[in-house]
Specification:
The chain is α/β, with parallel strands linked by helices and 333 residues long. It contains 14 helices and 10 strands. The strands form 2 sheets. The chain has a 6-stranded parallel β-sheet with strand order 3-2-1-4-5-6, with helices on both faces. A 4-stranded mixed β-sheet has the order 7-8-9-10.
């Protein structure tokens, strides 16, 4: 593509973004940050949340307050839901459905159930609209900078319509196939992250019990075959003692429960995930559902009497990658 064509393409993309009005429902830990990226980049955004303070903060940043999900669907070209449970998304969609018509898009950015997103997505499509499941992955700190990864399950034509929005909210955007496919991959990756979290907690506790310097142990894990995204990010706030990743045990339990449902429907007899479910059920019973998820390590600290913390580690995960416009990830094989 020549420079003139590139300039024309860029102008067309910006024009599409300028004309598209976006509704955003759910302004919590993730939704608040994703909607912030849209606002920061000049997108016309209408917002709604049960927490009025969240709405006021977005209005102060340039958003318009939406009176109800139904009125938002009527007023907007695309409405994004980013909610804590499949039941919450279904309830909001039920309100919006009478206002769905040709040209409207529902974008489900919650971590949700594949079967449920297909069920309610089919209702949107039957009403003439388009449906997308487009969950994010990579941590709240990357959602805050627009550098998170996004999976998108939908028709290719719909994907191309919303890609300009997705590349504002995320750095790497993957079209995963039909509606529901993104939700399967999202709970799959959350299962992997949970397994990594539990293994990192065990490894750090063993290092402490064996008398290792935890700063050295962290670096040894980071430069070895045992490293992982979870170790390099959550491992630091575990050692700091804050354990703050803006994610709680009940949300972990929901996600790995959804992964188990996918496995059960596929007839795959899992061994590790049922153990993870048991571990987090125990963590919830001990510490409460809203306990920060990295504090699953407290089960081991209590059992051993060890304090698995070390000086010099940050209290929060930060994204040191500069914010840049995202792009579609090409599947190479």
């Amino acid at each position: 593509m020549g420079q003139k064509a590139e300039r024309q393409s860029g102008t067309m993309t910006q024009h599409r973004e300028a004309k598209m009005k976006v509704g955003f429902i759910g302004l919590g830990n993730v939704g608040g940050k994703l909607s912030g990226s849209l606002l920061r980049n000049g997108v016309d955004v209408m917002v709604h949340d049960l927490n009025e303070e969240f709405v006021k903060a977005k209005v102060a940043a340039g958003a318009v307050a939406g009176e109800s999900p139904a009125k938002m669907m009527r007023a907007c070209d695309a409405v994004i839901t980013c909610l804590p449970s499949p039941a919450a998304s279904a309830a909001v969609l039920e309100e919006m459905l009478p206002e769905v018509c040709e040209g409207k898009i529902w974008m489900e950015m919650s971590t949700t159930d594949e079967a449920e997103v297909k069920r309610i997505g089919a209702e949107v499509i039957a009403a003439g609209g388009a449906a997308v499941d487009c969950p994010v992955s990579g941590g709240c700190h990357r959602a805050d900078t627009g550098n998170i990864s996004i999976f998108a399950g939908c028709e290719r034509e719909t994907f191309e319509r919303i890609l300009p929005l997705l590349t504002i909210m995320g750095r790497r955007v993957l079209h995963t196939g039909p509606l529901g496919s993104a939700s399967v991959l999202k709970v799959l990756t959350n299962f992997l992250a949970t397994a990594n979290l539990v293994s990192v907690a065990e490894a750090l506790t063993v290092a402490k019990g064996a008398g290792m310097d935890l700063g050295v142990a962290y670096e040894a894990m980071a430069i070895s075959s045992g490293t992982s995204f979870v170790h390099e990010t959550e491992g630091q706030v575990i050692l700091n003692g804050s354990r703050d990743i803006s994610f709680t045990m009940d949300l972990v339990a929901k996600d790995i429960g959804l992964f188990q449902e996918v496995a059960d429907r596929a007839g795959v007899p899992l061994e590790l995930n049922p153990l993870l479910i048991s571990i987090f059920q125990d963590g919830i019973s001990r510490f409460g559902p809203r306990e920060l998820s990295p504090n699953i390590i407290k089960r081991l600290e209590e059992a051993t009497g060890l304090d698995v913390t070390a000086p010099g580690f940050p209290a929060e995960m930060t994204d040191d990658e500069p914010e840049e416009r995202g792009a579609e990830v090409t599947v190479k094989r």
